[in-house]
Specification:
Blueprint (H helix, E strand, L loop, with lengths): L8 E6 L8 H18 L3 E4 L11 H9 L6 E8 L5 H15 L3 E6 L6 H8 L12 H10 L9 E3 L2 E3 L15 E3 L3 H9 L3 E5 L1 E3 L3 H4 L4 H15 L8 E4 L2 E3 L5 H13 L13 E3 L3 E3 L1 H9 L9 E5 L6 H18 L7
Parallel strand pairs: 1-2, 1-14, 2-3, 3-4, 4-7, 7-8, 8-10, 11-13
Antiparallel strand pairs: 5-6, 9-12
Helix pairs in contact: 1-2, 1-11, 2-3, 3-5, 6-8, 10-11
Length: 343
């Protein structure tokens, strides 16, 4: 088996489900999960956007609350689809949360038309729907804003008010902590050439015939990671985080184990071949004891190339399930992978 670097950073990702008729408890559960992650020594906690669904639609707002309930753990979005965002306003929000957190924010972003765009465009962009640019330009605008570039031709004092030409507050270093959620070679290459960090998840595009013919998600992911570092200014030191769905069962009850295994089995068919017009490949969920999971990961070509992960929590489990999974990840699986909890 190839040498695999010790796991340096252990994180987790959640979408934060809530009851449509009573959303408060679900949001509170997410904040408690982030607090637990800090106590367990996790390096990072990430929230995923879920627009028009019963999952967190405003991760930046929730992470602002999390900054006041944690002291150390890094907080990220994985990922913010920029097609629904104004890079000017988003930069203000991100910088504000980064200041509140003491420099712990890791914004993850992606581009492309919003999902179900034809159904929402009249409310999202009533006057400009057909003119909106959903290309990488949106990321470049956000980066310009986060770096303190000029966004106004006016700067100075007007009456008793002082105006800046850059986004305020300005948070130095935030732009260097921007991640791009890439699933294709073209997006991996674009992110690398611009010096961004790379989020590689459990969904990638089936490309490059030598890997697709083998039906091997891990080989495609590894090829993308290698290509990213080949082009990135930092080379082998460029940051890459992998985000598979990993469910350890060491301290789970028999009922939990049965539910976890049923969940993974219900999602297995989609991993057998590329899906949809975009030919997306899904990685199988990994369920088992930490020892079993460690064996799978250490043999996974994509995992072998990274020393950071943000394991994705299953979408539809209960709060107690997340407590058990996170505890096993931090106390059993992490150490088996060479990770040590933060002080």
């Amino acid at each position: 088996m190839p040498d695999t670097p010790p796991l340096r950073k252990l994180g987790f990702l959640t979408i934060g489900l809530f009851d449509a008729d009573d959303p408060g408890p679900g949001h509170e559960s997410t904040l408690q999960v982030i607090e637990l992650g800090e106590r367990l020594g996790f390096d990072s906690a990430w929230l995923r956007h879920r627009h028009l669904q019963h999952g967190i639609s405003s991760p930046v707002a929730v992470l602002a609350a999390a900054t006041q309930r944690t002291d150390r753990i890094e907080l990220g979005t994985a990922v913010t689809p920029l097609g629904l965002e104004n890079p000017f306003r988003l930069a203000e929000d991100l910088a504000t949360v980064d200041v509140l957190s003491g420099g712990r924010l890791n914004p993850g972003v992606s581009v492309g038309p919003p999902i179900h765009y034809d159904d929402i465009k009249d409310h999202l962009y009533p006057d400009t729907a057909d003119a909106e640019d959903f290309s990488y330009t949106r990321v470049e605008r956000l980066l310009h804003n986060l770096r303190g570039g000029r966004v106004s031709t006016f700067e100075g004092t007007q009456g008793i008010e002082t105006f800046s030409a850059r986004i305020e507050p300005h948070s130095p270093g935030l732009a260097d902590r921007v991640w791009y959620g890439a699933g294709s070679f073209s997006s991996v290459e674009w992110a690398a050439r611009r010096g961004l960090n790379l989020l590689s998840s459990s969904v990638i595009r089936a490309e490059r015939a030598e890997h697709v013919s083998a039906g091997d998600f891990a080989l495609i992911q590894r090829a993308q990671v290698d290509r990213f570092r080949e082009l990135h200014p930092l080379g082998a030191a460029a940051r890459v985080s992998q985000g598979l769905v990993v469910i350890p069962t060491d301290t789970a009850t028999p009922a939990q184990v049965a539910r976890y295994e049923a969940y993974a089995a219900s999602r297995l068919d989609r991993t057998r071949s590329p899906q949809g017009p975009a030919q997306m490949m899904f990685a199988p969920d990994i369920v088992g004891t930490s020892a079993q999971i460690a064996d799978v990961l250490l043999a996974h070509a994509g995992f072998q190339a990274v020393d950071e992960v943000a394991f994705a929590l299953p979408f539809s489990f209960e709060h107690a399930d997340y407590v058990q999974i996170l505890t096993d990840l931090a106390t059993v699986l992490g150490p088996l992978l060479g990770w040590r909890p933060a002080a």
